[in-house]
Amino acid sequence: MNKFIPLLLTLLLLSGCAPHYSLVAPGQVSTQGLTLTPARHWNKSPFSPGPKVSLWTGDGEALNQLFVIGGIEDGETLFKAASKELAMPTFSADMLPNELVNFAVTSLKLHYGSELTITSSNLRPQKVSGDMGLRFNVAHYTPAGLYRQGDVLAAVRDNRLYMVIFIAAKTHYYDRHISEIEQIFQSALITTPTGRKT
Length: 198
Description:
By secondary structure, the protein is α+β, with helices and mostly antiparallel strands. The protein contains 3 helices and 11 strands, in the order αββββββαββββαβ.
């Protein structure tokens, strides 16, 4: 039995060094140049899909994801490229609303895997921090056949893009969180010109 003790100690040390999710408490939270006001607890991933992205989840990333993205400048991408062969699209401050939608949809498609088909719908205006922004919906099937639906809020201020993206399994999890997402979107304030992490 003694021969298993070094292995056990090594496993314990490794688990202690592993990154963990951190709690995002209800109330005002500032991250990536945005201040949001969630009404419930979320969990912040220790891994970021981009240098100016915070990733939250309510029930696990396979079931729902909330991307908080801020301070994206001309020539920058939303997410890190998953492969060198498929470059992420880059932001331009003079993008029209439909171009911003295509930018977000293509970025999500490449982030999740280029074989996905992501559709967008219901593009409409929505104020963000007193400025005119936009809102739209996205949807797609995962390779395993799970249908996921999402909402996107976006605004450009001082030639920088700020975006909040919610994606969830349509069955149960989207409907469970959509009223909370509405509150988060309504509460969104642009607070700094550059991205900061919580």
